[in-house]
Amino acid sequence: MTFHPLLLLLLLGHIIGDFYAQTDNMSKGKRSSECCERWKWLVCHGLCYTLAMAVVLFPVIRFSWGLLLLFLMVSVSHMALDSVKQFIKWKPFIVDQLMHIGFIVLAWRIWNNRMIMWPYVSELNSMIFPRMSMLHENPYWTLLGVLVILRPVGYLIKSNEIWNFGDIVEAERDETEPNKVMPNAGRMIGYLERLIVFFLMINSLLWVYRE
Question: What is the DSSP string of 137-182?
């Protein structure tokens, strides 16, 4: 059975739009106590999210009214869910992401059999996706895994909603030059550590599969 990448595309668009296309100003602005300010940043983020979703969907899936409806449903629902995020008091980051992913999975279940890929994508798909049981056999799922490891997992750690790490320090000082600040040094170290662990896990799966 040929694997249809609609779920992968929807998750990829969500990760890019919600974590890589969203700036710190957008994230803070969406939580503003002022209604106008909050809606301004919600709309701004919604547009960036919509653009990210369009970039990953339309070059792969042949255009149809069903695709347009799916695209609008996912994009508009994301902004609607973000607008109620401020009322979530218990683990807001985890609950927020579960709601987004849950809606994406629901949309995928409804529309998956109605989407048709462009011919050139189908040819590439037939060469890459026949063996899809293991993560290391599928470079696109590996790419999605890398994107998740870098930013979303970092936000999860920063939220302290699973493990309480205390206050997260955003910048570190150079011990040789006390007055010199190295912004995001700890973040870059965290990126490297998580990537190393991720690829070691994939390598372990490869050895287990071969045995």
Answer: G-HHHHHHHHHHHHTHHHHHHHHTSSS---SPPSEEEETTEEEEEE
